[in-house]
Specification:
With 120 residues, this protein is mainly β. It is built from no helices and ten strands. 0% of the residues lie in helices and 57% in strands.
């Protein structure tokens, strides 16, 4: 399968999970294309000052890999500075959030996988 840039779905959400500003997410794979193993594989962009609010994961885990920019990452209530090349993983049952702390866009890959394979 090849999906051209012009055909990739881009979702825009204001105040995602109680965060500030706008989150843009380019859908690399749609949930139905993940073989029942997950629900998100996308490229997320947060402009300066934007954030994804702290939220818990139940039945799945989420991994972020920063491609561009810098951020503050909430790892179960502890805020940590992160930057390009850093990976953060939030296992099932834990919580996290992220805020763009830089002057430019924050871009990261986000992957949500189910803890156990679910039937589609």
């Amino acid at each position: 399968m090849i999906r051209r840039e012009k055909d990739i779905v881009v979702n825009t959400t204001e105040g995602f999970k109680g965060g500030a500003g706008v989150m843009r997410s380019r859908e690399i794979l749609a949930p139905g294309e993940m073989g029942g193993h997950g629900r998100k594989f996308g490229l997320t962009t947060l402009e300066p000052g934007a954030s994804i609010g702290t939220h818990a994961h139940a039945g799945d885990s989420e991994t972020y890999y920063i491609l561009k920019g810098s951020a503050r990452y909430n790892d179960n209530g502890t805020w940590i500075d992160v930057a390009e090349g850093d990976m953060m993983h939030c296992p099932d049952g834990e919580c996290h959030g992220i805020a763009n702390s830089g002057d430019g866009p924050l871009q990261f890959v986000a992957l949500i996988l189910y803890t156990e394979t679910k039937k589609q």
